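Hi there,

I know you've been waiting on this one. I reran it after we fixed the sequence typo, so this is the corrected version. Both the input and the resulting structure follow.
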Amino acid sequence: MTELYKRLSEIKTDSPYFKKDLEKAIKANKFIGRGSIKSSTHKYMVAAGNLANCGDYNNEDVVFVSAEGNRKGRLSVDLNELRVAIEANVTFVTDNNYHRSRPYNVGEREVATFLLKNGYSDGGTGIWKKTVDKI
C-alpha cells in the first residue's frame, strides 16, 4: 500500500468513481492533477499534499494522473507538470480506455493524447510506459 493510497483513502466522497481512482492510487507514489474546487481531482491534489505536482520525478516513479471532466469552470491538465515527469521517464497511471471514453472525461482524453504525442503507450490499460524517444 503506497503513501499516496493511504492519503487518498481518507477522502470522504460519494462518487461512484472513487473506487477506480483508489485502484490507480495504490499503484502510484506521486500524483499529477489540478481541478476546480468541487472536483475530485482537486480533492485528490489536496489529500496528496507534497506528493502532488511536486516537479521532481525519476524513472522509478509511478504517477497517478487525474484530469477534471467536462464541467463548468474546469481546469485543464497541467501539461508543464506532465512534461517534467515525461522527461524523467516515469510510468503514468490514468483511466483505462473504457473510462476515458465516457463523454464526461475530456480531461482524461487530453492526458492520453499528450502522452501518445510524447512517446508513451498504454494499450488501453491506463498504465503508460515510454515506448519511443520523442524526436
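Quick highlight: Residues 3-130 form one domain.

Best,
R. S.
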